[in-house]
Every structure is written in C-alpha cells, then in structure tokens.
Amino acid sequence: MALRLTDTRYGSGPLLVCHPGGPGMHPHYLDPLAALAAPGGRTVALVHPRGTGDSPRPHGPGAYRPERYAEDLVAWIEREAGGRPVDLLGHSHGGMVAALVAADRPDLVRSLVLLATPAYGGDEAEAEAEAFQQARRAEPAVAAALAALAAQGDDYPPDDAALGRLVADVIPLWVGPMTPAVRAWQARLARWPANTDALRHFNEEVFPRLDAVMERAADVVRPALVIAGDLDGWAGPGHVARLTRSVARGTPEVVAGAGHMCHADAPEAVTAAIRRFLDHKSVIHV
C-alpha cells in the first residue's frame, strides 16, 4: 500500500516534481533546484520520500524496495496533480524511482530528467567510484572525507542523526571543488538526519542488482534529459551514455567540473540545462 508523501513547494506555474535520492537523505539537500522556480518559471515540488523529511517511516520486509518508492510517487502525482502528466525529475536513487514511474505510467509523465542517476551498480560501479576517489585523494578535502569513511568502517552509524553527519563529512567525494557555496550547503546537510534503514536496504539488496532494475529505462517513451557531472564517480559520463542509449528519446548532458551532487556544485549549469530541456519540450508539445 502506498504511503501518503508530503512535499515542499517553491514558485508557481507548470509542475516539476523532484524525487530526491540517497536513498534516505533529507529531501532538502535538493533545495538548490528551487532556482528552477524563478519568476516566470514553474512550481518545483520537492517530494519527501518514505522515511525522510515529513513523510511517514515504513516498517516490515521490503519497505524500501524500488517498487514501493514508485508506488508512493504514483499516488502522489495522482493526488496532487489530479492524474495529469507532470515533468518528473529524479536525482541518483530518485532517478531510478522516476524511471520506474515513467516506464510504468507514461500517462502521468510529460518528460523525465535523470539527474546523476546510475545506470548500473555492483562491482563495476564500485570499482569506478573507487578510482575516481583515489585520483583526487591529493585534495585535502577529499583526503579528509576518505579518512572519515575509513574510520566508520563497514558498520552503519548508530542512528539517523549520525548518518546525516557522516553524509556531510564525505560530501567532498561527491562534488567538484569545495567552494564556499558548497561548504555552506555541506554545513546544512550535517543538521539533517538520513534514514539508515533505507540506505542499508539499497546497499545490500538493490545496488548489487541495479543493472537489472535500470533495464526498465528501456520502457521509458517520454523525452528524457540524462545529466551528470564529469567528476561523478557513481553516475558520470559512462552512466549518462548508457542511459541515453536505453531510453527512447534521450538527450545527454555532461557538466564539466561537477560531481554526483552537481545540483549543488554547479547549480547554474545544471538548472540552465534543465530549463533548456523543459522549455524546448514545451515548445514542441511532446
């Protein structure tokens, strides 16, 4: 049974629904996308996925399966958009959820933005991410993040608040250069809890078989923007190329100097690319 999700909204105009990733990160880590709601823009609805933000926390076996997230999002669109099609954006794990919704319910999706969304997981993806990280270990912030990760070891933090702080500590692994704006965003992350149960389920049950889950992208018929940073070790250029080939009507975009959190370390470039895609899609009435 779908959970009733809450959301945070910015602006007014055509509805752009944004599903965060993590999984389990506090949804407001996507706040930089609120810039898409600039005057004359659109309503940006930042959905709070199950167990995060103000949405209820599920319990029981399979509570964090990809299909459960998709069911929640379908129910939200049917309720909040009256069943009318929306522009749908998903970041990282949220891109997986958005792709499942677009594949299963094309009647609810006008266009799709896959933002830093992995096309595959398992050993191949983990090795690529490790190589990206090691290539940058001479950067002091990256070295400190790797040390924080090593100190944590294989155990999960004891509670959601501690996981939120760890996420903030390792942010240098997921961004390009640590600018003052990125550091300010990182400081906000440290104050927000992250759902340990959701992350554990993804790491142990979903990530090893992510290739199979993302095969559903081949069923997406709506126009799709596939965008990520060239410094993204988890969903970078190789993932962009594979997903663009998978979807029927894909447009690739790789942002120079940006990492997995490209909406935070390259917000102007990312929002400009999304605006171009959404505006062009509106002009040609797809």
TrEMBL record:
* MF terms in GO: hydrolase activity
- Indicate whether Nucleotidyltransferase appears among the record's keywords: no
Q: Where is the AB hydrolase-1 domain?
A: 14-266
Q: Which Gene3D superfamilies match?
A: alpha/beta hydrolase
Keywords for the protein's UniProt record, in alphabetical order:
Hydrolase
Q: Which residues form a coiled coil?
A: none
Stored SUPFAM superfamilies: alpha/beta-Hydrolases (SSF53474)
What the entry lists under Pfam families is as follows: Abhydrolase_1
The UniProt entry, under PANTHER family, shows: HYDROLASE, PUTATIVE (AFU_ORTHOLOGUE AFUA_2G14860)-RELATED, MONOACYLGLYCEROL LIPASE
In Swiss-Prot or TrEMBL terms, this protein is called: Alpha/beta fold hydrolase
Give the source species.
Streptomyces andamanensis
